[in-house]
Design goal:
alpha/beta; nine-stranded mixed sheet; 9 strands; disordered N terminus
């Protein structure tokens, strides 16, 4: 992986909050499309502002779009965004965790992800010394075309996610590794404390990341993650994380921890796919937990799903709250944070 040689161009992490919903729901020569439509934009703006109002301290984030490359045959360009606090690092001795956000089928240019990145960066209870969040790109979408060009989306999705004859997804591996490398290269990031969160389609890169068995990645979480095609993946032997003297608490920190958050009424996540995915997480050496939420449909973490005309989607405040709380607890326990 080689990321762009251009230095980050920092801007306020909450700049989106000052933009008009109509501008957020279309692309321009200077900015990508960040929302499906005006209703989507307004829903996220409202949730983001409510989140800020609940914060106990006033802290600001900064963000920078970044173009980076992956080492596939085409040296594909990917388009992510880095979030961190505006407070400068005091010294290199205080390294901070890094988190990767893997996007839904809407692509990386999604204001929902910017909200979550800003929220994590400003979570002083969880990250008292700060953290760096990287919104990663799996599609190669710098303009937000995934919102409108669904034929192109389906074509790219299939080229990345459908396993080859050997049950491997090398294109996906390249893009996941590029995200890890780009985040790890950011100033102040502790390359030994990496976490990854995946939403919807982001379940695929989370599973692939687990299969890659990257030692620096300690926590992986999926929210309404989809697993279509998991039955065609090859089987991989796990690394041995257990010693004869390992306690349960030691295993929590030594083995990669995976949390799968899923709704029982989600039509896109079949019971067989879920069972195969969770079995594979354990098979490759992860400590996998599953949280199932009753009366919960697809996209339950996103308030904008209340405006989705499909009955398959719906925001569920209770399921969102419980899954986010469990994620924070897992991060805190694994990384010994907030002490």
């Amino acid at each position: 992986m080689t990321s762009s040689d251009t230095s980050p161009s920092w801007q306020p992490g909450t700049l989106i909050l000052s933009l008009d919903p109509s501008d957020l729901s279309k692309s321009s020569t200077t900015s990508p499309q960040l929302a499906k439509d005006i209703d989507y934009a307004e829903a996220i703006l409202k949730a983001w502002k409510e989140d800020i109002d609940k914060r106990t301290t006033i802290q600001t984030s900064i963000c920078s779009p970044i173009e980076y490359k992956c080492n596939n045959n085409d040296n594909t360009s990917l388009y992510g965004c880095i979030y961190r606090t505006s407070q400068p690092m005091q010294d290199n001795a205080s390294l901070i965790p890094g988190l990767i956000l893997f996007h839904t089928g809407a692509g990386p240019q999604d204001m929902f992800l910017h909200w979550k990145a800003d929220s994590l960066v400003n979570d002083e209870e969880l990250f008292p010394k700060g953290c760096v969040v990287f919104i990663a790109d799996i599609l190669g979408d710098g303009e937000g075309w995934a919102w409108t060009d669904r034929l192109r989306y389906e074509t790219v999705r299939k080229s990345i996610l459908i396993p080859d004859d050997k049950g491997e997804r090398n294109e996906l591996k390249y893009r996941v590794q590029a995200a890890i490398d780009t985040l790890s290269a950011q100033s102040g990031v502790d390359s030994g404390k990496i976490a990854a969160l995946g939403f919807c389609m982001g379940g695929h890169p989370i599973l692939e990341l687990a299969r890659m068995q990257v030692p620096s990645v300690k926590v992986m979480v999926t929210f309404h993650g989809v697993w279509d095609g998991v039955d065609r993946l090859s089987h991989i032997s796990s690394n041995d994380y257990r010693s004869s003297n390992s306690s349960d608490d030691e295993l929590i920190t030594r083995k990669p921890n995976v949390l799968v958050c899923t709704g029982e009424d989600d039509p896109f996540i079949g019971k067989d796919d879920l069972a195969l995915a969770t079995a594979m997480f354990n098979e490759v050496g992860c400590n996998c937990q599953v949280m199932k939420f009753e009366r919960t449909r697809h996209g339950f973490t996103n308030p904008a799903q209340d405006y989705n005309p499909s009955d398959a989607f719906a925001f569920n405040r209770d399921s969102y709250s419980k899954s986010w709380s469990a994620t924070r607890s897992l991060l805190k326990k694994t990384f010994h944070l907030g002490k």
